Structures are given as C-alpha cells and as structure tokens.
Amino acid sequence: MTEIFGRFDFDVIAHWVRPGERVLDLGCGDGSLLKFLAAERGVRGYGVDNDPGNVLACVKNGVNVLQFDLERGLQGFEDDSFDHVIMSLSLQTVRHTEGLIREMLRVGHEAVVSFPNFGYRRHREAIARGRMPVSEALPYQWYQSPNVRFFTIADFEALCADKGIEIREGLFFDEGREIRDDPNLNAELALYRLGRRL
Amino acid sequence: MTDTRSVGLVVPQRARFDQALNLRSGASLPGFELVFETYGELNADRSNAVLVCHALSGSHHVAGVHANGSPGWWDNLVGPGKPLDTNRFFVVGVNNLGGCYGSTGPMSINPATGKLYGADFPVVTVEDWVTTQARLADHLGIDCWAAVLGGSLGGMQALEWTLRYPDRIRHALVIASSPKLTAQNIAFNEVARQAILTDPDFHGGHYYEYGVVPARGLRLARMMGHITYLSDDQMAEKFGRQLRDGKLKFNYEVDFQIESYLRYQGDKFATYFDANTYLITTKALDYFDPAGAYGGDLLAALARAKADFFVASFTTDWRFAPERSRELVYALLHNGLDVSYAEIECSAGHDSFLLDDPQYHAVVGAYFDRIET
After folding, report:
1. What is the least distance, in Å, from the CA of B307 to any CA of chain A?
2. How many domains does chain A have?
3. Which end of chain A lies in a sparser environment, N or C, as judged by fewer CB atoms within 10 Å?
C-alpha cells in the first residue's frame, strides 16, 4: 500500500529515524520502506507481515521479514527493543488499534504511524453523495477493503489525548503537498511520531 | 536422466577420521567413518558450500538417484534450478554418526571386541554430530559454509552449527524445528523407544548376534511416529473413515484405510531401518537444548551466534509447532541477528517440510538467491 504515495512519506519517516537505529515495520508489505531506510539511514530493520506474497517479496528484497499475525499483538517482542516501531498505512487494517499502539510504544522508544484520513474533504463528499469513499488514499471498494477501522485525524488525536499517548510531531499531506490548514478536512494522509507520556 | 532438474546419478563417498572423538556423554570413539554425497561444484573461493543435515530417518542421500533408482529424500528441493540450486552451490549430505546408512554406528565393528557394536555404541548428540560434520568440512577443504540447513532434527543441527562454530557458518536455515523438545514431544519418543526396548527380539540391543531384528518394536515406533507427523485434517482428508474392503470385519484385521496405511509404513520401515540407530537418534532429539547450559535462558545461549537465519514452520505441524519456531525467532531478535521467519500454510503437518509446497519452496529459493557465493 505504501507505493500509492510514492516516496514522500518514506522521506518523512527517514527524516525521523537516526542512522543505525533498530527499526520494526509492522505491515511491511514488500519491504520497500525498510530497504529505503537501510539504504538511506543504515538501519537494522525487521518487517512484520502475515501475507505470504509480501513475505516472499521481502525475502527477495533482502529485507528481514517475520510472518506474524498482528492481531495477536507484539507479545513476543521485548520492551524497548527497537528505536522506532513503524506502522505505515496499516493502522486502519487492524482491529485492536488502541492495544497495538500501546504495544508499539512498549516495544519501541517511539512509534511512527501513518494512515489515510477518512475525514478528508473528498471522502466527506462521497459520503454526502451517499457512497463510501474510493480514492487514491482509499483505493478499495467497501466489500473488498482490507481496512477494518475507519477514523479521521480528529478521531486519532482524540484517542491519543484520551489514552495518554504523546503526539510528538504530526505531518499532513494532500497529493504530496504538506497541509497546515485544517488537516482533518484538507489532508488525505497523516503521519505521526508518537511517544509515551512520562 | 530425462529430468533436467535432477543432479542425476550419484555415488556415495566415504571419509575416515582417525583422531579420537570425545562425545558429550563422556564416552569416546577411537575414530569413525562418515558416508556422504556431494552435488554441484565447489568454487575456487570455497565459498559456495551448503551442508544439508538429516532428520530421524534421513541419510546422506539428499538428492539425485542411486544406481538402484532410489531418489534422494530432499530431491524436490536440491538440484539444478531448484530452490537450493546446485548450479550455484556445492551441496553436501552426510549420514550422521550412529546412523545405519554406512557411517560408523551400531552396525559397525567395535574395534575393542571385534564384534558389532550393537547397544554398546555410545549415545551421540546433536553437538557430537556437528563436531563430526566439522571434521568432514575440514576434509573437504571448507572453512566456512555458505549455509547449513535442515528440517526437524536437521534444523537442530543447523542451529547448533551457529553456536559451536559461529565463524564457520554464514546462514542457517532452521525448518520445522525447535530449540528444544517439549515434554509431549519427548513423551512420543519414549513410547517409540519402549516399543523397541520391550520387543523380545531386541536382546538388549545385540539382536544382530541372534540373527533377528526387533521388527515389531520398530514397526510400532514408526506407526506412532507417522501419526504425529501428519495433521488431523490431512488424515481426515486422505483416509477419513474409509474401509479397505468395503465392510466392517468384526475382528482385528484391517478395517480402515488408515490402519492399512500405518501397518504398511511400519512394516516397510522395519525392513530397512536399524533399531539401535532409532534409539540413539530419538535420544539426540530429546537431549538437544542449547539453553540448558544457560539455566534455560535461550537468549543467553544464542549470544554466540553470528549467522543470518531463515526460520520456517508449518501451520498444521503439531509435533514441531510454529510456537517453537517463534520462540527461536524472538531469541534471535534479542541478539540482534538477521532473521526471516515464514509460517507456511500447509495441511501436511510435520511432513510438510519434505513436500514441495509452492510458497515454501519459493521462499527458501529466494533466501538462497540472496546468499553470496
């Protein structure tokens, strides 16, 4: 799924990751983000994906991949064992959103998440017309979508405030351009750097 | 040979090692012989060598065919253009010490007595096997394996290589295996051993002298083993409650197809496999526990390892369950090693590792493709 945005979200994530870090990428797809981070930042990375095709693609890409089911959580991973735990455009595909973010912040010093904003103007317009949105950010028909959670930027920030998850940085984009004005309406994609509130 | 993806006709080789071998048990052997096969060519840098370790009933005959037509036990994986491609790699298969396919074992002459060892052959362990395999590597001029791989007990040997000789192995492929057996798994081995040990033809392990073999025990051991190597689903699918002769007989002959299958497998096995080797090999399985020397701490036990790992398990394998492989993966992660883990959806239980499931072979092939030679 990462490919639909080209590389600009990769650039943001690479900017947030320091050279040589240990990185865990949840829902890593074909491993292209980890391959990018290894090339750009020299990270030691591991991807997690439960799709056999993605596992094969990662092995072909020379990326460490672990075929685990994220719905079972991250229980085998040790506390603080990664510098960053990343979930790029996959948060909306898991059921236990809150538990998973908590787990990401247990296993990693920081978490990075990105997700399509269901509150984006065009998505609202689609709903107003009476149909579920299908767009570049949400390229699936409702009956074949891997997405199981539908939330907006405002929903996500409310969750973080409610659950003591610290938002250290948030960046919002529409068609590759950064959005500062009312991102919940104007941005199709949100990226966050999250931490544990001390 | 019409099959262009086969290594073709192979002839086993033999190497003799005259230096005494001290075993984990405290016993020692004055020397030993190993039977082995090789496929492909060792390159000039000697950097393309791959060792294939066998499981309970396997042998050095991994790939190709013998003159008598018998195919190697992993011929679907190893050969030109196959996942472990003999056009790129020099592949070595070896019959482990204590085996019954030609390497020194219970059926060899004990130089101290001039008679067959039988039950006097010492219990050997995974660690001992790896030591002898290292001597074979020396013999072949291989300083460092590009990879060591195996399934089940073979995977334990690949893992042990990374601990015993961390500088002599670059990649370990540990498939359908475990860093140690569970109590349930040991329990199955114990029932198998009891079947053999209590067979009246066992004669304390010296049955060769009586001109008999404990075929009933070996047969029972194999029948039970087979049940544990298959999955419930697969057995249901393959046999269900099918009757062999179309009606119930109301006696103790074969009613169901599954009975027929197990009897056939047991009978066949008892004609070619040695009972003493079976006993030794199940003990090697039970004893393997690299964490044992570290108070049960697998994380600490693996700190020595330097190799990159590929770990695979099969969803329906309950004898070497995916959970055991995950345990290994987490311990490798703790130690910062490169590791990939595939959990293959395959209905065939533990036996899956011997089959040619497309996803399984594709991932193993892709992993070998990225190993530099």
Report:
1. 13
2. 1
3. C
